[in-house]
Amino acid sequence: MERIAEFLEGLALPVFLAVAGGIAKSSRQHEQKNWREFVSDIIVSAFAGIVVHLVLQDHGLPGSQEAALIAIAGYSGPVVLDALSRAEIKLIEKVLGEKVVRPGRRRGSDKQD
């Protein structure tokens, strides 16, 4: 239980940075959003920041560079998650030696998400 608490405590700063990135992007958008859309965008930003933080953990980047990348991930939200998803699928395909068929897609489909 103590390890889980330490892990969650270690996510506080990355979540803050990613949420700040999401708020920065939201403040630049000119269309009006309701609270539900705003909260949804912030949740996606926080998740993107957590994922990027976890990916970067073992790469030994200086803290300031990691912080900047996490904030940018929060700003870019879904775009970052889509890019990481495509990279992960390519890695899995390389390891398995065959194409991964995603739900709703046919084998041999060249269409990219």
Question: What form results from the Cα inertia axes?
Answer: globular
SS-based structural class? Answer: mainly alpha
Note poorly predicted spans: none
The helix tally amounts to 5
The number of strands is: 0
Largest sheet: none
Question: Can you characterise this structure?
Answer:
- The termini are far apart.
- The model has no long low-confidence stretch (mean pLDDT 88).
- This protein is 72% helix and 0% strand.
- The radius of gyration is 17 Å and the shape is globular.
- With 113 residues, it is an all-alpha fold.
Write the topology of this structure.
Elements: H1 2-10, H2 12-28, H3 35-56, H4 63-76, H5 78-96
Summarize this, please?
This protein is mainly α and 113 residues long. It contains five helices and no strands.
Q: Which terms summarize this structure?
A:
113 residues, mainly alpha, 5 helices, 72% helix, 0% strand
